[in-house]
Structure formats: structure tokens, C-alpha cells
Amino acid sequence: MKKVLLLTTLSLIAILFTFSACQQKAALQQSPNDRFQHTVYFKEDNKAKTAGFFSEEIAIKTEMPTPFIMLSGYVKDPKFEGNLFYRTITEKEWSEWQTFPRMHEGKTPDRTVFAAIELDDKTTYLQIKSDTPSPAPFVIRLFTPGHSSHEDDTSIRSGSENCTCEQPDFCGRMCWCPSGNCPLDATPQATTPTHIIVHHSAGHTTSSDYAAVVRSYYDYHVNTNGWDDIGYNWLIDPHGVVYEGRGENRQGAHFSCMNSNTTGICMIGNYETAIPSTNSITALQNFIAWEACSKNINVLASDYHSNSETNLNNVSGHLDGNGLPNSCTTTACPGANLYPLLGDIRNQVAEMVCMGDLSSTTNELSEEEKILVFPNPVVSDFTMQWENIDVNNIILSNTKGQMLRQWQGSDFSNSSIRTEWQTGINAGVYLLQFSLDDGRVIAKRIVALQ
User: Fold this and answer.
1) How many CA atoms lie within 13 A of 124 on its CB side?
2) How confident is the model over 175-224, as pLDDT tens digits?
3) Plot region of 226 (φ>0 → left; ψ -120 to 50 → alpha; else → beta)
4) Which domains are present in the chain?
5) What span, in angstroms and rounded, lies between the C-alpha atoms of 192 and 403?
6) What's the CA gap between 160 and 210, in Å, rounded?
7) How many C-beta atoms lie closer than 10 Å to residue 335's C-beta?
8) End-to-end CA, the chain
9) pLDDT digits (tens, 9 = 90+) for 189-198
10) Strand-pair partners of 144
11) CA distances for 60 relative to 56, 125, 184, angstroms
12) For the chain, how long is the longest CA-to-CA vector?
């Protein structure tokens, strides 16, 4: 798969504006290296055609070609309840006031964030309006990612000795951010994925320069949201190109404050209104196959997810987290036109030859039958419990199929067994196989943290 080697330099404007009665316009000149910050307050204008509290009319001048200007912002108040609007001039006339959408996709404990909007690269003026006074500073961010170069191709792939599904080629961080100004989190939190969460990027996708879009997401997530890195582990554009975000085994910021033991894959596009492309769906399926195979995840099953305290489809949409005990947001992600496709996507992945035993659907439990393994992930001891089935044998194995421990009927006299994690078995993903009296074998994954 062809990848993009990006040669452009990133540029950033971080702006805080101070308003006073004598000020009428603030001129902002794009600078490749400087970051400007000033305090912002809105001023009521009794002569305005619409009610509200207004910023100055802000003149924008860019010094380098760019496919778009990314607008985002935040109020330094986590309890700010007001609504914001923006308007622009790209030629001569002001546009109509448009909603500056509030960000609902993650936790930003010290601020209220307003989502990123792609402004036309020819935008010359910007103005912000609030329907309520803002007692706290408001920060407007304007990010100009510059154009990406398509002169060279690069493919980066890391293999897995435990998986027969190949990892798709992907555009690494130095591919979409060749300046090196988008560093990885220096103190990441490691995690072992047991669930794959599918997202869409909603409305921030009018540009077809998707490497530039990924750069702008990084700036938005880090400098507006205040996160340590881009929120997603991986991203996929409508052409089917995969981009490395946080990457493998790093806990992201994407699943409503329930991020441990998940991988977040973002489909770039607004799939509330648009239809996912065939190329992007194929890329998503191929990537899920590799992720599931390498992590021993049954894509057709639902297993206990400790961070959400519920059984969750192993391949879920972001909105599957709505209403769960530890969820901090409510969302429609990954959109009305993508979420219904997840069932077919799971089935297509399960039928891939490389998925092997993980794609088997012959041994399943009925609605009345249950097997629970908790806590999972395991630190020291754990419990295996079952209902309405007869278990005669349990085998613990690694992802290579090597048996590490076995429990037979004589080891348990009822429908549960509590046991200590075996000394000498390293942290990682393992498989518990429950052999039933009727011949079925039910597999459950278990994650060891030490």
C-alpha cells in the first residue's frame, strides 16, 4: 500500500485575545514557530443585529499554503454552560453564524472544549459569539497544517510472531508529521487490548489531504483538549490508508473514560451523514483481523471489560459505552451510517482464513448459559464461574497454543473455582478453554498484568 511521506513544516497559532472598548479588530499573522497566548473576554454589543456577547473581528493572515485552517477552542472552566458560535469572511461578506460544537468525546477536567472546525484556507476574518458572559478565559486556537507532499512513498509495518494475519502497511508518525513536532507521550500508560473500539471523526473532514487532517487532530487533542497525545491508537482515511496514532499497547483517550484494555480505531469522516467508502471498510476489516489475531480476540464474542464493568462486544462502536457505569460521555460515534455495519464487519473478519480458531462460531453459549472470569485483567487470583452448563475440564494456554495449566472435574465440585495466577507466567493475553459435557469447547480470554 502506498503511503505518504510528508515534507511540509507544521505551523501553529495559539491565540488568547484581550478585548477592550477601544479595540475594533485584532490582526493575527501566522508564524511557523511562535505560539501566542492572550486572555479573552466577550463584550456585549447592543448595536449588533443578534443578541449575544462578541469577540473582536479577527483578521487572519497566513504566510504559507495550507489546505485548511483548523479552529478549536476552550474555556478555562469545566462547568461553562454557554453556547458559542462563529462566523467568517472568505471573500467580502460575513457568513451566517454557525454553531461552534461542544466536544463530548472525552474528559477534559479543567476546561470546556469546543470541537475543531476546518475553516477555508482563504478565510480572512473570524468572529466568535457567546450567548452568555464567560467568567473564565477563552482560548481560540488556529492551526495551519500546510500541504502534504506525495512525492515519495513509505510503508512501515511491524510483525507479530503470534499471528498469521498480516498487519496492514501504515503511515507512521514521521510519515504524517515529518517535522517531528508531534511527539509520542513521553510517559505512556501501557495496556493489553481485549476490546477493539471503532470511531468516526465526525465533522472535521472537509479536506482530502488526510495526513494534514491527522496532524490537525494531534494539535486539537494535545493543545486544545490538553491530552498527552492524539487520542486514537490508529486512524483510517477514506482511501484506506492507515495512520499510526498512539500505536500498539498504549492506552488511548477515546472510549468515554473507559480506555484500559482497548484499541481505538478512528475512521476519518462524518458517518452521521456520509457513507463509508469500500476502501476504508476493507482497511478496517484487515486491521481488525490483525489486531484480533495478534491479541487473541474473538471478534464474534462479547467478554467482560473490567474498566466498563460490563460484558461488551469485543468489536464495539464508541456509542456502546453510553450509559455504562464508568462512562463520562454520551455520543453517536461512529455514526448512523457506520455503526450498523459493525455486525457485517465482525462476520467478514471472522471468515478470514488467517483468523483460524478465533473465527469459529460452532461452540457458543445460549442466552441462559454463562461463563464468567473475574477479575479480568488478573493481578493475583481470579475466579471462574459458570451457570446452566456442566464443565469437565479447563485448560489455560498461551497465544501459541501451549498448555500452561489444567483443571479437571475433581478440582471443582460446584459451578465455580477460585485460583491463584500461576507463578512464572508473564504478563500478557492467555486463553481459557472450558470443555463441556456435551462436547462443546468455550474459549475465554484472560489478561495477566504481572
Assistant:
1) 6
2) 999 988 899 999 999 998 999 999 999 876 778 899 999 999 999 999 99
3) left
4) 11-144 (2.60.120), 173-359 (3.40.80.10), 370-448 (2.60.40.1930)
5) 21
6) 27
7) 27
8) 37
9) 999 899 999 9
10) 11
11) 12, 6, 30
12) 86
- One DSSP character per residue, 122-158 reads T--EEEEEESS--SS-EEEEEEE--PPP-S----B--
Q: Which of 134-148, 216-230, 435-449 has the lowest mean pLDDT?
A: 435-449
Compute the distance between CA of residue 358 and CA of residue 393 in angstroms, rounded to an integer.
20
Q: What is the pLDDT of residues 357-368, one digit of tens each?
A: 554 444 678 888
Select from 146, 123, 130, 117 the least CA-distant residue to 41.
130
Reply yes or no: is the peptide bond before residue 377 cis, omega within 30 of 0. Answer: yes
Q: Which one has a higher pLDDT value, 163 or 222? A: 222
Sole residue written with cell 476574518: 125
Q: How far apart are CA 8 and CA 150, in angstroms?
A: 11
- 115 close to 108: Cβ distance less than 8 angstroms: no
Burial 414-439 (b: 16+ CB within 10 A, else e): eeebebebeeeeeeebbbbbbbbeee
What is the pLDDT averaged over residues 131-137? 81
Q: Cell numbers 467478554 correspond to what residue?
A: 303
**For residue range 43-67, what is the model confidence (pLDDT) as tens digits?**
887 777 788 899 888 888 887 889 9
Q: What is the DSSP string of 183-221?
A: PPPSSPPB---SEEEEEE-TT----S-HHHHHHHHHHII
The pTM is what?
0.76
* pLDDT exceeds 80 at position 369: yes
**Spatial contact of 243 and 171, defined as CB atoms under 8 Å apart:** yes
